[in-house]
Amino acid sequence: MTQNHPFHRFFLSVLVLLVTSLSVQAQQYPYQNPELSPKERAQDLCKRLRLEEKVGLMMHFSKPVERLGVPVFQWWSEALHGVGRNGHATVFPITMGMAATFDTLLVERVFTAVSDEARVKHNQAHRLGTQREMYHGLSFWTPNINIFRDPRWGRGQETYGEDPYLTAVMGKSVVRGLQGPADARYQKLLACAKHFAVHSGPEWSRHRFNAENIKLRDLHETYLYAFRALVKEAKVAEIMCAYNSFEGKPCCGSDRLLQQILRDEWHFEGLVTSDCWAVDDFWKEWGHHYSESKTIAVSEAVLAGTDVECGETFGSLKDGVKEGRIKEETIDKSLCRLLEARFRLGDFDDPHLNPWNRIPDSRLCCQEFADLALEAARKSIVLLRNEKNTLPLSEADAKDLYIMGPNAADSTMMWGNYNGFPLHTITLAEGICSICPSATFVPWERNVQRQVEAASDAKTVIFCGGISPRLEGEEMDVKEEGFKGGDRTMIELPKDQREILAALHKAGKKVILANCSGSAIGLVPEQQSTDAILQAWYGGQAGGRALAEVIFGKVNPSGKLPVTFYRNVDQLPDFEDYNMEGHTYRFFRGEPLYPFGYGLSYSKFVYGKPSFANGQLTLPVSNKSKRDGEETVLVYITKVGDTDGPIRTLRAFQRVEIPAGSTKSVSIPLPDNAFEWWDVKSNAMRILPGQYILQVGDKNLKITR
Description:
705 residues, alpha/beta, six-stranded mixed beta sheet, four-stranded parallel beta sheet, 21 helices, 27 strands
């Protein structure tokens, strides 16, 4: 039968009518029309849902509504420094290490790669039918932009350090990388700024701790600074409210935080999710003793502005409506925000319309991302000590080289926490041996005498020490001296490591300490027992290779500390004191071991006289060495006469490549908002006129704004 046969033409006509009819039937409601705005579609769908269906959509496992074609949705996925808890993925350095790069463009590239892998995994889950499983969704609860105010906090490794400005600019880079271009038809992923607010340890009391009597200035100038930037400038899709209470109310039930500040002052239009089972803390015995029952707790959470719960307690919202504790119209407001976010992702639309669904599987764990993980690890390493130019090691130093220490062959340590699983991890020992095959590896045991005897023939020892994510992290059960509930009670190296380093030094060895940790370590004794110290963080899948390249001079170290390295806990205020006096470089008046922003290089950089005009700080920076290098120029500001404010605070920085023997004129923008300061008259952050001191390197410049 030919195509021109009358029956064939009749069959085609019927088929076209049938397809058209089905298409019209499939789009019979406005919420199914992709040409309408996400807000219009969300409002239309919301009014067609029953109360029980609405409640089912407001928990992290969002149940499907088959009668209306609403698919299942998982709100809980992780991507702290790579797609986490979902099989193989590229594992980048822990976020504290990425903060040490002071490279915002690098961080955006990293999280663009992360979002590529996240979309691939989500698309694979749909093909395999596993989209119901946790961590397979498009909503990622990162970045953690809490201020790392105290090195004892075990989750500090998840943050971008102790400075509000650095945290803000790094956080904005993360959001841009995850969510994709602002003008795209469909959003790539949903990013989530957490934990809102005034939350940075201790872990052991987080479910009942009440942050109160905090200076209003500290609240806005320090704890809320980065959150405001991510809301107003990066348009972050989600905010996660914290476990702790603030001024007597659980953060997930705080109308001051979630309504007055977040919605009314900052005009946040996204959604608020609870931390996991945080609403249970409202009413259960271990928590805040704030609500009398589960039904009251969930009603109070939604009334305050929590839209979706990580947990299962929101199922009691229907009882709250029946008891008159909350109106269904209030639930609708929260639900519409959730649905709108899903429409922005293209969750209800034909997958072929969404370009993010066409990212090829080959992007997952690809060579490009492996190279990016290596670049990030290289730039994260901070050279803290280098007596008599011990580093880089020469070929002569490579003879009789021994590698030892608890972290030398520990691959899982490299992954940090909230991690994915790389195809291959280059341990510190593997990285060193790849460059120096003649090196001798000494297996770790805690016996000091045996360790020293095993290295008796060594001329140079690379000791891979520090701690690990098995000791510091979120709410952990750790039975080790100096650790409590995931936090630390002391900040020095474990006793056995200190003793071994001292014994190696006494035996006449050249000792290089590669310190792995997510936060500051009190390395006072190691100033005498080592010749060089490198802060290697938890370096991700390529951390071992990066460390070896720095040690042997193939890479010039360029990382800077995003936190203060104190001498010991005696220099710190009470762990549960959230007022900023005495915390972080901005308010610490003692002498730290290594200050915020510290980091040596194999090059020698000299700063010239700075000048300021037309919103630009300009100064010459010279490389007075025979080696090309990268320097990060940090610009701090102090307001003259402000005795209650920070001693100095970072407001700009720029990484600069400077060839050996060259001088570069470095120009760094300082726009009006760089001079935003606390205004005691209005109790708010304002761009204030007056005299300021700009500090860059060892140079100061007083200006009038």
